[in-house]
Structures are given as structure tokens and as C-alpha cells.
Amino acid sequence: MNASVKLSCRRLWKTYGPREAVEATRSGAGSGDAAAVMERVASLYGLSACAGISFDVVRGEIFIIMGLSGSGKSTALRCLSRLVEPTAGEILIDGEDFTAKSPRELIDFRRHKMGMVFQNFGLMPHLTVLENIAFPLRVRGIDPAERNERARDMMRLVELDGRENAYPRQLSGGQQQRVGIARSLAGDPDIWFLDEPFSALDPLIRRQMQNQFLHLQSALHKTIIFVTHDISEAVRLADRIAIMKGGEIVQIGTPREILDNPANAYVEEFTRDAREGLTVRGAVGAGRG
Predict the structure, then answer these.
(1) How far apart are the first and last CA of the chain?
(2) 44: enclosing H helix or E strand
(3) What is the DSSP track for 95-159?
(4) pLDDT tens, 253-278?
(5) CA-CA distance, 215 to 224, in Å (whole number)?
(6) Cα-Cα-Cα-Cα dihedral of 244, 245, 247, 248, to 10°?
(7) Distance between CA 23 and CA 287 in Å, rounded?
(8) CA 197, 114, 98 angle in degrees (round to 5)?
């Protein structure tokens, strides 16, 4: 495995449906004929939300998975983090088989090496901003003084100084999302998963959060897998983009590669509105692609 690769996803499947559909997926997963497997699964009244997807994510990269509703993008992210168990395939993190980790090992990995942010901010209403951010460190059993110092460092990083004693209900949507981001970073994760983190925000606040996100990445250089349905957001933020349709990946490339050379009519239509007037990070991703 290439030393620069942080996460490798190989022939990943997630099938929902009766046991027969799941077994059909497992027996056909290695064939390389995703269409035939999906047809067989469908005949058994199952659905393959992820159909043999493969990609690598290099260290320090912002890798965006995108597609329309029902494309399988969020299921893919949940499989990669094992919030949902894959039906078949491999997930390697730092060369280790992530799918082989026991429940106890998985909990330990999530506490120490993985950060997650979702569209729903998920803040605890009875805790202050400082307590919400420090909560993952509290779960680890870290001394209160140390965890509060780390939480304050994260507050400064997301520009929430002075709001330590506020409660979530006293914050705007953008501020609440910044608390969620700070909390996910408090444990200094190796890999960071974000599922539509800004989609619930108003357009102006969303733009500000995108700016904040890029500022954070320039300082922290995290390995990031980010899900969105918004091509403008993907083009603005990504080093590379994977576009999904019907559970399959139809193209992977830098923003510039995808805009200039869409792989098929679907990608061309999907990216039509993004061809002009957008800030493209393709120059950054091109060296990695």
C-alpha cells in the first residue's frame, strides 16, 4: 500500500433487503460485474446503496463524495466510519483492515483517531459550549484542567472566544455548527468525516463556514472525507471529488478535471451550473490526482 494513502476503500458494497439479497451481494462482490450483482440483488427485492466502490484518500487531502439524494454518498461515508456495517469489501486505514476491528477496538479508534460532523449539530443542550467541546475528552477520562484547556484552544480556532459559558440555544446556527466542528477536533483525530455539515445553514452563513473550514484545513492538514450534494461546495472545497449515481462511482478527479472533462452525460449535466464563476481548488488537487 502506498505510504501516502491514509484510507483505501476496495470493492465496497452495502446491500439492504432480505438475507438472500445480502448473500447474493457477498457471493458476487468479487466478480467485478457490479451491474450483474445489482440486477440479481434487485430480483431478490434488495437494494445496493453502495455497489463495489473503490478509491484511495491520501494524507492531508479533502476528498469529497457527492451525488443527488439516493446516490449512496452518505451510506458510503457511514460504511467508511462503520456506523453502518458494509456487506462486502475492504476498508484499510493506515494499511490496517478497519472492517476487522472488534467493537471495543472500534470504540477506541473513534475516540482517539476519528472525528465526525453531521448536518444535525448534535449538541447537548444542558452543557455549555466549553463542556460540549470538551465532552469527547471527558469520555476519555482526561483531567478537567487539561480537557478545558484543549477545548479553549479549539474555541479560538473556530473563533468562538468568549462564548464558553453560553448554551446551544443561545447560539446562531453557524455558531452551533462551529461548536460541533470544534468538538470533533478536540481529540486531534487522524481522519475527519463530515456528512453535509453546512447544508442546514443559510447561504451567507454557509459561505462563511466554508471559509472557516478551509482556514482550519490550512492550519491542521487533516485527512478529510466530506459528503455533499452541492456541486458548488464540492468544487470550492475539494482536492478531489468522487461523483456517485445509483450506488456506483461514475467519476473521480480534481474539480478542474471533472468540470473540463466530464466522464458522461450525467456528470456533464450535474456540473453544468458550476462551469463558470466558481473558485476551483483543482490546482491544489491536481498534484495529488
Answers:
(1) 16
(2) none
(3) TEEGGG--HHHHHHHHHHHEEEEESS----TTS-HHHHHHHHHHHHT--HHHHHHHHHHHHHHTT
(4) 999 999 999 999 999 988 887 776 55
(5) 14
(6) -60
(7) 41
(8) 120
Q: Which residue has the cell 446562531?
A: 172
Which has the closest alpha carbon to 116: 219, 207, 10, 190? 190
DSSP annotation of 29: G
Q: What is the side-by-side strand order in the sheet with 47-58? A: 47-58, 5-16, 88-93, 96-97
Residues 113-139 have pLDDT tens digits of 999 998 777 899 999 999 999 999 999
> For residue 280, what pLDDT is reported?
52
- In this predicted model, what pLDDT tens digit does every residue of 221-252 receive, in sequence order? 999 999 999 999 999 999 999 999 999 999 99
In our burial notation (b when 16+ CB lie closer than 10 A, e otherwise), range 45-58 reads: ebbbbbbbbebbbb
Cell of 5: 494513502
Q: Are 206 and 178 in contact (CB under 8 A)?
A: no
CB of 147 within 8 A of CB of 138? yes
What SS3 state is found at 259? Answer: helix
Cross-strand pairs, 115: 192
